[in-house]
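Risk register update: the risk of archive-format incompatibility is retired. Evidence:
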Amino acid sequence: MRPRVRPMDGVCEYKGNLCFSVLKDSELYQDLLMNRHAEISAMHPDKTWISIRGDLEETSDPDALSAMLQTCRNNIDNMHRFCDAAPAIFLLKNGTVRHFGNTGLRRESSL
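Archived output:
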């Protein structure tokens, strides 16, 4: 299976971990069960950028779901469907953060 780029509207921080919410009845959930690797990239207006790579670990911690609902209540499209569809929460674990400048890699650290 090839990795895909997907927008995420349910993202929060919980106990020091970056978390993503996914509906269990979605194609994305099935994809993540087969390939748990994730990469997030973002660019700053000054053209520096960051890359965060790691593995996704599903959690059944009800407090993680509560944190997601509290943080993202205004961002998740169709919140009623989200709550009714038994969302899965994935934590980003065992990864690296790489910060790049205009001349290449500036620094790298572990999550």
